[in-house]
Write a structure and sequence with these properties.
Length: 399
């Protein structure tokens, strides 16, 4: 185990502590998370570590990440809406986390500290959210803004599912009934919080990935995995919120199919169908960074979309894969699939280690979440995607 007596402050230690702060705050509050991330980048730059390009250039994720960044800026050259496109291109600064994190040395001890920091942050927010819904804690900033009626319904639900997955890993590796009970209790708190969130994305990710959770709980007992997974999913649907979301999804789908008023679910179908039409008209290189907004408006005005009466044209298609397709065509889709393939392969190969399991499960959660929103551009999930990309090259050393 790493010695705790070595109190010498080094740039690498500062970067690691900043990364722990980032992981703790990312599910809690955006501004502190940004501050911690900025501190890590600042240390990386001013210490001169950024010039060690071999830290990341040799990584298998380097080429797809460079491709994604390059496409975002090159796409400005042929986009109709330069201002909107520039805003999207600037979001590539999230990838600085991957480059910086790849230069931090990791051991099992450090990996555990990092992921326990995340577990503490997401559990704090989940508990607070539950208490707010019970009326024990007042709904007021900064937490109510992050958790109700703003960004959190999609992004936070995905962060919750990832948290539950990581806690199940800690449960599996915990020694003693006391430690196992703590992790089981934290899993329960976060699952209850998930059941109260108005998010189909998080519920879908939980349902699909529940066998991974139950595997960590019962081991390689496949019948028990199946039964416990069904029990967990069934418990999730005991929540009126979860059942209500399912009813809304069904009624919204029916309503959209009959050409009626667009519901939130129907809005997704509208954005996806529009993106597909635009992509098939521009399959090779897409329409450029930020071009989706103006293209949707043009298609709607020309009567080329299924629904004409929408309150506001969407700025992106709320799907990471369709965003890359409509913006950059075949190269965009290929770059994103390439990156996910690298992360999933790396995570699966090292799934029995905490680092490998975290890379694997976060990547799976993000793939699922990317179906219903452009998660590769949302600050919370994009930040973690970049960080886990950098972490995917880290080796879990022996204690």
């Amino acid at each position: 185990m790493e010695s705790l007596k070595n109190k010498a402050v080094t740039p690498e230690k500062l970067m690691f502590l900043s990364l722990c702060g980032l992981f703790f705050f990312i599910p809690v509050a955006t501004s502190p998370a940004v501050i911690m991330g900025s501190l890590m980048i600042a240390v990386w730059v001013f210490s001169g570590r950024f010039i060690h390009i071999t830290d990341w250039l040799r990584q298998k994720w380097a080429l797809p990440v460079i491709a994604i960044i390059s496409l975002a800026w090159l796409g400005l050259l042929y986009a109709d809406d330069f201002e909107t496109g520039l805003g999207f291109a600037k979001k590539t600064h999230y990838w600085l986390y991957a480059f910086a994190v790849s230069g931090i040395a990791f051991s099992v001890y450090r990996a555990e500290i990092l992921m326990k920091a995340y577990a503490a942050g997401v559990s704090f927010t989940s508990l607070l959210f539950i208490l707010q819904n019970m009326g024990i804690v007042p709904m007021r900033p900064p937490y109510s803004v992050g958790l109700l009626n703003r960004w959190a319904h999609i992004s936070f639900s995905l962060l919750l599912v990832f948290g539950v997955l990581m806690m199940s890993f800690f449960f599996r590796s915990a020694r003693g009934k006391g430690h196992k009970a703590v992790w089981l209790a934290l899993m329960a708190v976060n699952t209850v919080a998930l059941s109260l969130l108005l998010s189909d994305s998080g519920h879908l990710a939980f349902i699909v990935l529940s066998p991974l959770i139950t595997y960590n709980l019962v081991g390689k007992k496949y019948l028990k995995i199946l039964l416990l997974s069904l029990l967990m999913v069934g418990a999730l649907f005991l929540s009126p919120v979860t059942r209500g979301r399912l009813d809304d999804a069904i009624s919204g789908t029916i309503s959209y199919g009959k050409g009626r008023e667009i519901t939130p679910v129907g809005g997704r179908y509208y954005m996806w169908s529009g993106a597909l039409k635009i992509y098939f008209d521009n399959p090779l290189f897409g329409i450029g960074t930020g071009g989706y907004l103006s293209a949707m408006k043009d298609y709607r005005e020309r009567g080329l979309l299924h629904d004409k009466d929408v309150a506001e044209d969407p700025i992106h298609p709320h799907n990471s894969f369709l965003y890359m397709a409509v913006s950059y065509g075949i190269p965009g889709v290929a770059a994103l699939l390439w990156l996910f393939a690298v992360l999933l392969r790396r995570g699966w190969r090292n799934r029995d280690s905490i680092m490998g399991f975290s890379v694997l499960t976060f990547s799976l959660v993000l793939v699922i979440g990317s179906i219903t929103d452009t998660q590769i551009m949302q600050v919370h999930t994009a930040t973690l995607l970049s960080a886990f990309t950098g972490l995917s090259g880290a080796e879990d050393a022996k204690n």
